[in-house]
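**Protein record**
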Amino acid sequence: MMSLQYSLSTSSFPTLHNQFCKPNPSLLRSRLARCAADEQKNQIQLPGGLQQQLMPKHVAVIMDGNRRWAIERGLPAQHGHRAGRKAMKQLALDCSKYGVKVLSCFAFSTENWSRPQEEVEFLMNLAGEAIASDLEELIQKENMQVSYIGNRRQLSESLQQQLCESEEHGKSNTGMHLVVAFNYSGQYDIIEASRKIASKVRDGVLGAQEIDTSVFQKHLETNVAQFPNPDLMIRTSGEMRISNFMLWQLAYSELYFSDKMFPDFDGAELVQALTQFQRRERRFGGHKY
């Protein structure tokens, strides 16, 4: 037995290793790049006195004001949406750098279909461009996982395919989880969860008496994330409402309203929002004396 073990360790193993464990150069380069990126993030000091232990795990953003940003500059609305796309990518990079675990972005609501057809078509094309370029880069270079929530049935087959492929490309990543709400609304999410639960009750899989907040939350689309409920919700453009976004999930979120249009929402404004969050005392309905 000793001689067999020795033989395997000194001669057979290298042969087996060479035969079955040939390295994939592109895969190795990708992994090394991700490790380097993660190491660099660990070395970055937080700005403005932010504390890592107080960082919100989940930040949700209503990205509002793209059209008004363009109008104020005498530009077509499309220019505002393109500027918003750029701001969203930078927001994801900043949140990842500061240690946020989940970032949810409200990109297109179910109510946005009421906009002029030309603008809707532009937004659909812009979404496809962003998925193929910006989000793919975040997946490949920044180790982010990406998920899309919302009603996909109304989207074109090609865009649905892009969403599925994007999720597949980043499913094994271990960095920040970017959740893009596209053709989404809080009411839609609640109704869909109710239908799923009702079907299980009808089929005898779930008893009506078993339904509680935990069961209901597991059927919401945001359950794709490790931390499904936002700790901090940010809305830009000076509007002070949540506009049918994550109605269930925002029950105890801290709210931050910025006067800046979303294309102007930069790293300094994000730091201000995170600073305000870290100064607040969260009670979740209880008292603290």
In short: The chain has a mean pLDDT of 89. The first strand starts at residue 58 and ends at 62. The beta strands are 58-62, 102-109, 145-149, 177-184, 232-235, 254-257.
